[in-house]
Design goal:
Elements lengths: L1 H24 L2 E5 L3 H12 L3 E5 L11 E2 L7 E2 L4 E3 L4 H8 L4 E4 L1 H4 L1 E3 L17 H9 L11 H7 L4 H15 L8 H10 L6 E4 L5 H11 L3 E2 L4 E5 L5 E5 L4 E4 L1 E4 L3 H5 L4 E3 L4 H9 L1 E2 L2 E8 L10 E3 L4 E4 L10 E7 H9 L4 H13 L7 E8 L11 E2 L8 H5 L6 E3 L13 H18 L1
Parallel strand pairs: 1-2, 1-13, 2-9, 7-17, 10-14, 13-22
Antiparallel strand pairs: 3-4, 5-8, 6-8, 10-11, 11-12, 15-21, 16-19, 16-20, 17-18, 18-19
Length: 444
């Protein structure tokens, strides 16, 4: 009991000291971008006593976290959907907010190949990702030393079947955000080797990612400025000047840039002076591809109850509401890379193309069966421009350069700046926020 009380006294003294540090900080930081990395960085900075302003280009916070309300009796995630890893800050925050998680067990609820698979007497799918596919994936490490080889090239050399290509596109390509022709084997393996969050994946059993963002947004309150797209960041003087499209100018001691790498590549923000050459090369070297979700509600289920993920002839599908709304008649087409880009630019309605693939996959006629649908095309989001960064050949070595501060005044966060294997994830974006706050403290 005495030890416990002594511990309480120590904490109280530490808190008093921290409050004093807060009052002494007197530094202003502008955070550009109101996605999860920007919001989390702002929260951590505010707790350290910094004055913070978040400039978000769109009319909402969350970035690539977004929900579809009213489509079903639960919220549907249009962007980030999985909690990856049992040892992540995101999982901890989820549980701290009182949300329950459903573990997705790949051994029993993983990928199911539909078209052209072996079927039983009831014409039901009985085959999953084959052992051959797993062997192909495991053997990729043998070509680790070739920095130019893509996963597609590796599969061609391995004489993989068309079926194996489709399965691996779903297991790897869609997961990391692009086509097998664009994903580098060495960079993929290097990225995977650094992963430390654990290999268990979870879905929210109730609520949505909005319930994680909500407390952050409430805590930050009027520090968030919506509809404020930043057009320039001048870091040439001691005080940085950030200008928005409306002509407003903000000054600060430090600036944290958290915008997606696709926004940096489109030069939507002018940096004065121009960013260092190695930073510019890094920006161009880290790729971010198209991505979309097509949410479809049908008048009835035409898939088996045990199925979670379906590989069609062309696209991958998830059973939306899996294990939280068992009678849900909703499928989500998860489409990445060139297929998403082609759909995005097509003159034909996207949902018609997707329905045609579903009909071929299940060998049924779906005319009149679609009740409602919604398309979330991340390529068309003006201040995002795609899904998330992926390991293209030679790209991984540039992440640390992209993440590095400039002149101790300009800092970079966001999933693309994560150089320890957690890019393309919500928890990875949060970890870059923690890193950048540490860098700002050390820079004083």
């Amino acid at each position: 009991m005495l030890l416990l009380m002594a511990g309480c006294v120590t904490v109280a003294m530490a808190n008093q000291s921290f409050v004093q540090i807060q009052h002494q900080t007197n530094q202003k930081v502008i955070v550009v971008g109101g996605g999860i990395s920007g919001l989390y960085a702002a929260k951590l900075l505010m707790e350290k006593g910094y004055e913070v302003v978040i400039l978000e280009a769109s009319d909402r916070v969350g970035g690539r976290i977004r929900q579809l309300d009213g489509f079903a009796d639960f919220q549907i995630e249009l962007g980030a959907e999985f909690v990856h890893g049992q040892r992540s800050e995101l999982r901890k925050m989820t549980l701290d907010n009182g949300l329950k998680l459903i573990e997705v067990d790949d051994s029993t609820e993983g990928l199911v190949y539909m078209h052209g698979s072996i079927r039983d007497d009831d014409d039901k799918v009985v085959i999953k990702a084959s052992r051959q596919v797993q062997k192909l994936i495991n053997r990729m490490s043998s070509v680790y030393d070739d920095p130019t080889k893509t996963v597609h090239q590796y599969l061609i050399e391995s004489e993989a079947s068309v079926r194996d290509h489709r399965l691996i596109q779903s297991e790897i390509g869609n997961d990391v955000g692009s086509d097998l022709r664009k994903i580098g084997v060495r960079d993929l393996i290097d990225n995977d080797d650094k992963w430390s969050a654990g290999n268990r994946d979870f879905l929210l059993a109730d609520g949505s990612f909005k319930d994680i963002l909500g407390p952050l947004e409430t805590e930050l309150g009027n520090r968030i400025r919506l509809n404020s797209p930043v057009v320039s960041i001048d870091y040439s003087l001691d005080k940085l000047v950030v200008a928005t499209a409306s002509g407003e100018k903000f000054t600060a001691n430090k600036v944290v840039c958290t915008v997606p790498v696709a926004v940096l590549q489109r030069n939507l923000i002018a940096f004065v002076p121009t960013l260092p050459q190695n930073k510019l090369i890094a920006i161009e070297s880290i790729k971010m591809d198209a991505g979309m979700k097509v949410i479809m509600k049908f008048d009835r289920k035409f898939w088996d109850d045990e199925v979670f993920s379906i590989v069609g002839k062309r696209y991958e599908y998830w059973v939306t509401g899996y294990r939280r709304s068992p009678q849900s008649n909703i499928l989500t087409a998860f489409i990445m890379g060139s297929k998403a880009k082609s759909l995005s630019r097509s003159q034909r309605p996207i949902v018609k193309t997707v329905l045609k693939d579903l009909e071929a996959t299940f060998e049924i006629n779906l005319e009149g069966k679609l009740v409602d649908h919604y398309v979330q095309d991340w390529l068309q989001e003006p201040y995002i421009g795609g899904a998330y960064s992926y390991p293209s050949p030679g790209s991984e070595r540039f992440r640390k350069i992209l993440a590095s501060p400039v002149d101790g005044k300009l800092f970079f966060a966001g999933e693309a700046t994560h150089y320890e294997g957690h890019n393309a994830t919500v928890h990875g974006a949060m970890e870059t926020a923690t890193r950048v706050v540490e860098e700002i403290i050390k820079s004083q």
